[in-house]
Amino acid sequence: MTIVRWGPLELPVTLLTSSELAGLANTGISAPGADIINTGGSLYCDVEFVAGAAFSPSASGAMLDVWVLRSIDGGVSFEDGAAGFIPSRDPDLTIAVRGGTSIIPRAGASRLVLPPGHFKAMARNRLGASIPSGSSVRIASYTEQAV
Question: Is the pTM of this model over 0.70?
Fold first, then answer.
């Protein structure tokens, strides 16, 4: 009988840096991050938002929406999405963030399905406050393995 387990987490990769996120106002839409290549063929990833400094996310429903913009031509072009406008579909993932006054939250979500090949990410701020400098969104990928 084959048993299927999670494989080990890969080293974290940064999807969105302070360049895309710093100062992004509430309801603001980030520019897409750098091109990332899923060379290892990982199927899933866990996603983490790390605030770069203290800020005050809304106590009611602070969230960060994340889209994974796929490329089917080796990274030459990507699915629609740019600073100021989102893809015409729901986000791939919404990270719920703890609200509070002058806090440095670290929040995540699991099991985002990764596309093969090239992709980029972008975000919409629904945190109720501007995102502080030094913030990032990162992933750690993994797959299933038969043992």
Answer: yes
Three-state DSSP string of the chain: CCCEEECCCCCCEEEECHHHHCCCCCCCECCCCCCEEECCCCCEEEEEEECCCCECCCCCCCEEEEEEEECCCCCCCCCCCECCECCCCCCCEEEECCCCCCECCEEEEEEEECCCEEEEEEEEEECCCCCCCCCEEEEEEECEEEC
Q: Which of 4, 39, 46, 31 is nearest to 120 (CA)?
A: 31
- Count CB neighbours of 141 within 10 A: 21
Tens-digit pLDDT profile for residues 57-101: 999 999 999 999 999 999 999 999 999 899 999 999 999 999 999
Question: How far is Cα 130 from Cα 55, in angstroms, rounded to an integer?
Answer: 8
- Region 4-146: CATH code: 2.60.120
Structure tokens at 62: 């602070």
Alpha-carbon gap, residue 98 to 106, rounded angstroms:
8
